[in-house]
Amino acid sequence: MAYIMVDIESDGPIPGDYSMISFGAVIVNDHLDKTFYGTLKPISEQWIPEALAVSGFSREETMKFDEPKVVIKNFSQWISQNCRDRPIFISDNNGFDWMFICWYFHHFTGKNPFGFSSQNLGSLYKGLVQDTFKNFKHLRKTKHTHHPVDDARGNAEALLTMKKEMGLKIKLS
Fold it and tell me: Per the database record, which ranges form the 3'-5' exoribonuclease Rv2179c-like domain (predicted)?
């Protein structure tokens, strides 16, 4: 199974009413050398300035981004080209990241290559260390910048550390 670490940025709290502005994905392997980055034109007239500000883009900039259907189709093709078997979606905050990716896949392509489930990196770490108060973020090497590829890479680094240094039993690409 191929674990794909994903991070998204949006201009609001939910898909449909608000828009996914950008996302990044990294295939979790020893090299972290297979990445995807997409910027998406808003699909809604609604947006929250404070939410958009996290991404570092202005509304005017986002209006010039790529059509979401094209970006999502390209992401689906990238997944197919880089995964020999079933892709597994994993993220730091899968409740948030997953709902946008899943919604966009179903809305724009009619299906989600990840299927109907996702994994949460934070919960995985809490189980590994057997402490629900612990946080994995100190395991990142790449600085958390809110650029989704940087953030996905940092989270992938944390997952690799869990495997290599903490004994997590997981099969990665």
Answer: 3-160
Least Cα distance to 157 among 173, 128, 136, 127 occurs for 136
Burial, 21: exposed, middle or buried (Cβ in 10 Å; 0-12, 13-18, 19+)?
buried
Residue 45 to residues 12, 18, 37, 66: CA-CA distances in angstroms? 11, 8, 23, 16
Across the strands, what pairs with 22?
Answer: 9, 39
What are the pLDDT digits (tens) for 83-116? 988 999 999 999 999 999 999 999 999 999 999 9
What is the rounded CA–CA span in Å between residue 25 and residue 8? 9
| Contact criterion met (CB below 8 Å) for 74 and 105 | no
Angle at 107 between CA 71 and CA 76, to 5 degrees: 40
- Domains of the chain (ranges; CATH) run 2-166 (3.30.420.10)
> How far from chain centre, in Å, is Cα 71?
14
Angle at CA of residue 11, ends 6 and 12, nearest 5°: 95
Q: How crowded is residue 146: how many other Cβ atoms within 10 Å of its Cβ?
A: 13
